Amino acid sequence: MSKLTVSCLLVLCICGSVITIDAASLFCRKPNQEWTECGSACPRTCDQLEDRLCIQQCIRGCRCNRGYILNNHGECVLPKYC
After folding, report:
1. Non-local CB neighbours of 2 within 8 Å, separated by 6+ positions
2. Contact 46, 71 (CB under 8 A)
3. Could you tell me which residues are beta bridge partners of residue 76?
4. What gap in Å lies between CA 18 and CA 82, rounded to an integer?
5. Separation of alpha carbons 35 and 53, rounded Å
6. Are the CB atoms for 40 and 64 separated by under 8 Å?
7. Measured between alpha carbons, how far is 57 from 42 in angstroms, rounded to an integer?
8. Can you tell me whether residue 76 is helix, strand or coil?
9. Where are the domains of the chain?
10. Locate the TIL domain: which residues (predicted)?
11. What is the pLDDT of residues 1-60, one digit of tens each?
12. Sign of the dihedral through C-alpha 19, 23, 26, 29
């Protein structure tokens, strides 16, 4: 490969990484949330406090930090605030 080709590929890889990081920080703006590439298809919520049977499937997106669950407004809260 030529130096130009290698340089272009390097720039594309770096830009792709930056775009992915920026997208994650843009989508997960609510408190107590984080981006995950492979989260549960059945997250715990205030309406569903107990674990339940759930299909094993990776879901990309925001999820609540450990110890927090979704309330009816889509916010991650401690279970005692449900």
Report:
1. none
2. yes
3. 70
4. 36
5. 23
6. no
7. 9
8. strand
9. 3-81
10. 30-82
11. 565 444 444 444 444 444 455 566 678 999 999 999 999 899 999 998 887 888 889 999
12. negative
DSSP secondary structure string, 21-75? HHHHHHH--STTEEEEEEE-SS--BSS--S--------EEEEEEPTT-EE-TTS-
Token pair of 3, please?
């130096």
d(C-alpha 55, C-alpha 73), whole Å: 24
- Token couple for 79: 């279970």
| Tokens (6 digits) for 70 | 């979704």
As a whole number of angstroms, the distance between CA 2 and CA 12 comes to 16
pTM of the model: 0.64
Specify the length of the chain in residues. Answer: 82
